[in-house]
From TrEMBL:
It comes from Lentibacter algarum. Binds 4 FAD per tetramer. Each FAD binding site is formed by three monomers. DUMP binds at Q109, W110, I111, R112, E120, Y121, S122, A123, R124, R197, R224. Catalyzes the reductive methylation of 2'-deoxyuridine-5'-monophosphate (dUMP) to 2'-deoxythymidine-5'-monophosphate (dTMP) while utilizing 5,10-methylenetetrahydrofolate (mTHF) as the methyl donor, and NADPH and FADH(2) as the reductant. Its cofactor is FAD. Homotetramer. CDD domains: ThyX. One of its GO terms (molecular function) is thymidylate synthase (FAD) activity. This is Flavin-dependent thymidylate synthase. The active site is at R224. It holds the Pfam family Thy1. FAD binds at T89, R112, H113, R114, E120, D213, L214, H215, H219. The keyword Methyltransferase applies.
Length: 302
């Protein structure tokens, strides 16, 4: 993990200073505030600020649903009810602001979640550091033969070594040319930073502040902490999961049960389950599903 001296000094100052507050506080989240948790070779995630806790979710639900929640005996039961029935607004009452350092190609995948507020380090104004994501050999794999956007079998040791040599060499060469084009401040014929950056590879690291409400954060985690997500974004999601579990434990527990550990069935899949429970031997041909749907359905059951 690469924190600059200024960032490390800021963290130490912030963690050594406390102020009284009247707002709701999550003790679990307080333990995470400002700490930087390493991800990949140079990346990290740290919590800058947050708003709300499990109680804030319940408070919002009781305002909006009124007497409809009287039958729910406790806050945890209410939260599980809300999660189970896909109510979203109460979870939007909690927010988190993260500082994330990540490779550019991961950031481009991450930014597809357009429900957050983002401010990214600008390479128009500043010079990016010479830091590149270089995968561990065990993360190098061939293209999957059944999934066009996934990995298949691991590369051989010889092939892995060749790929790593290419990645390291290309990254160093591109950054050398980047520095050469920028030159030294005040020199004639220096290329503008906003143009020089186009030569940098997608595995260079960038940083941003990312602020999102809990509802949309859980949607992000459901997709990116999934076993099928790309490894390089999944490790960030896994680290964020640990923080969220301490921040809103009741909400996260319900999320694990109904989203991460649950499944949504199509009407055809539900019909097949009913037929199977009655003892019928259902095949792909008699299910009414395509081969792809059937394969995914069997994976759920197996």
């Amino acid at each position: 993990m690469s924190l600059t001296p200024d960032q490390q000094a800021e963290i130490e100052t912030l963690r050594s200073t406390s102020v009284p507050t009247l707002r709701a506080v999550s003790e679990g989240m307080e333990a995470h505030l400002y700490k930087a948790y390493p991800v990949l070779d140079h990346g990290f995630v740290r919590v800058i600020d947050y708003m709300g806790d499990d109680a804030a979710i319940c408070q919002a639900a009781r305002v909006s649903y009124g007497k409809g929640t009287k039958s729910v005996q406790n806050d945890e039961g209410l939260i599980r009810y809300l999660m189970r029935h896909w109510h979203s607004t109460p979870f939007e009452m909690c927010e988190i602001k993260l500082h994330v350092k990540l490779p550019v190609f991961v950031a481009r995948q991450w930014i597809r979640h357009r429900t957050a507020n983002v401010n990214e380090y600008s390479a128009r104004y500043s010079i990016l550091d010479r830091e590149f994501y270089i995968p561990q050999p065990e993360q190098l794999a061939a293209q999957s033969v059944i999934n066009n956007q996934g990995r298949g079998e691991p590369l051989s040791a010889e092939a892995s070594a060749r790929v790593l040599e290419i990645l390291k060499g290309d990254a160093a060469r591109c950054y050398d040319h980047y520095e050469e084009m920028i030159g030294k401040e005040g020199e004639p014929d220096n290329l503008a930073r906003e143009l020089a950056r186009m030569n940098l590879p997608a595995n260079i690291y960038t940083q941003w502040y990312w602020k999102v409400d809990l509802h949309n954060l859980l949607h992000f985690l459901r997709l990116r902490a999934d076993a099928h997500a790309q490894y390089e974004i999944r490790v960030y999601a896994d680290e964020i999961c640990k923080v969220v579990a301490d921040w809103v434990p009741a909400a996260y527990s319900a999320f694990e049960d109904y989203r991460m550990g649950g499944a949504t069935l199509s009407s055809k899949a539900l019909d097949v389950v009913k037929r199977m429970l009655k003892g019928e031997d259902v095949t792909q041909e008699s299910s009414g599903m395509s081969k792809g749907e059937w394969r995914e359905f069997r994976t759920l059951l197996d």
